[in-house]
């Protein structure tokens, strides 16, 4: 995947922002030390790690000053991002990464930026992440050099890799959070319910927004509201996810037996124009279309916001306080989130027995849920 400069994102064109990141120490005495984490706001999280804001991770206090060199985003739910973080932190414990990590000498104790970069590139090419439409922001030229070294022939072509600045990332975050930016200040420090999706075979599939969106390029039936859809970036055709998967498997024939999943195909031709594409590219095409439609809807949404602003037709002095109270996590929502995070340990890629043998590392589990 080629590294590109990051253009300014169109307003309203991004889904909720969940990301994993790699922080490295700039202190020569801590050379070779790094930290992997999860966040919904990378600029604020970096400030926390450097002590400029409260609630930074305890471990990174010894790495100060530190810098964020990679941000992986594009996850459609908080749980998907937490799964990626866990495997990035514990590559030998996670079943999906164990074999590849051990073959390359990467262990749970590996903290060098080079090893973590190599592992990140490996993960982007492994199931289930290779089926997702992920984005990688590279935040330094040194990081770009490491990425170029390990990404060749490993990272799928549909992964959106960009040479960015923290200002570019802040624009993504601001656009995703909108007026609710304050409500996300507790993202790493409290277990707010930010999404209920699991890492399923759909892996970030787009849902048709409404009826009348066209017909499936594979079966010819209408693309009904609420049904998962994928598309073709070349001709713009769209299809039901199940129909496109069936089409890919049929065209692959015997080759499909070598694929890592029996539910998610690796690649195949568009049923309309026959252009070859990966499953991730099919998902990305549908997401890009949804984002364009979201940007087109910004104007009417802005009119609604104007009516609800101070002095508008529906303004209320207590609205912001009520909104914050609604978004602040309750005890029950915290317990619900803990239960959800524990639940994904039972998935096939997570080896619970190996995790029990690694209790010291498990204490670093996301958001201290155990």
From TrEMBL:
Instruction: Return the annotated region ranges for Disordered.
Output: 306-332
Q: Which InterPro entries match?
A: GIY-YIG_endonuc, GIY-YIG_endonuc_sf, Slx1, SLX1_C, SLX1_endonuclease, Znf_RING/FYVE/PHD
Provide the Gene Ontology terms for cellular component: Slx1-Slx4 complex
- Keyword Transcription present in the record's keywords: the answer is no
Membrane-spanning residues: none
Keywords, sorted A to Z:
DNA damage, DNA recombination, DNA repair, Endonuclease, Hydrolase, Nuclease, Nucleus
Q: Which GO terms describe its biological process?
A: double-strand break repair via homologous recombination
Tell me which PANTHER family the record gives: STRUCTURE-SPECIFIC ENDONUCLEASE SUBUNIT SLX1
Where is the GIY-YIG domain positioned along the sequence? 16-101
Source superkingdom? Eukaryota
- The identity of this protein, by name, is GIY-YIG domain-containing protein
Q: Which HAMAP family match?
A: Endonuc_su_Slx1
């Amino acid at each position: 995947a080629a590294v590109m400069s990051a253009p300014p994102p169109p307003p309203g064109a991004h889904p909720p922002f969940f990301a994993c990141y790699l922080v490295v120490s700039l202190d020569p005495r801590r050379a070779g030390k790094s930290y992997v984490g999860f966040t919904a706001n990378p600029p604020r999280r970096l400030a926390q790690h450097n002590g400029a804001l409260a609630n930074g991770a305890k471990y990174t206090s010894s790495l100060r000053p530190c810098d964020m060199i990679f941000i992986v985003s594009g996850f459609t739910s908080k749980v998907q991002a937490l799964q990626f973080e866990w495997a990035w932190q514990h590559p030998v414990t996670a079943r999906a990464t164990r074999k590849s990590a051990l073959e390359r000498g990467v262990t749970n104790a590996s903290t060098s930026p080079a090893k973590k970069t190599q592992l990140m590139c490996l993960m982007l090419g492994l199931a289930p992440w290779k089926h997702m439409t992920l984005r990688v922001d590279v935040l330094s030229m040194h990081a770009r050099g490491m990425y170029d070294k390990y990404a060749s022939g490993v990272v799928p072509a549909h992964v959106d890799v960009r040479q960015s600045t923290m200002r570019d990332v802040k624009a993504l975050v601001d656009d995703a959070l909108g007026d609710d930016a304050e409500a996300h200040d507790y993202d790493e420090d409290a277990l707010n319910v930010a999404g209920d999706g699991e890492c399923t075979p759909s892996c970030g599939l787009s849902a048709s927004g409404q009826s009348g969106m066209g017909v499936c390029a594979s079966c010819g039936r209408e693309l009904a509201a609420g049904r998962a859809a994928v598309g073709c970036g070349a001709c713009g055709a769209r299809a039901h996810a199940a129909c496109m998967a069936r089409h890919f498997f049929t065209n692959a024939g015997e080759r499909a037996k070598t694929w890592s999943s029996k539910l998610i195909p690796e690649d195949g031709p568009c049923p309309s124009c026959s252009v070859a594409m990966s499953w991730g590219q099919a998902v990305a095409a549908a997401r890009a279309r949804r984002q364009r439609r979201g940007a087109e809807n910004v104007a009417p949404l802005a009119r609604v916001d104007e009516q609800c602003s101070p002095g508008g037709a529906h303004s209320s002095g207590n609205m912001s306080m009520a909104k914050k109270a609604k978004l602040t996590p309750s005890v029950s929502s915290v317990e619900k989130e803990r239960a959800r995070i524990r639940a994904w340990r039972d998935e096939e890629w997570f080896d619970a027995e190996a995790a029990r043998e690694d209790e010291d590392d498990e204490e670093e589990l996301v958001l201290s849920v155990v």
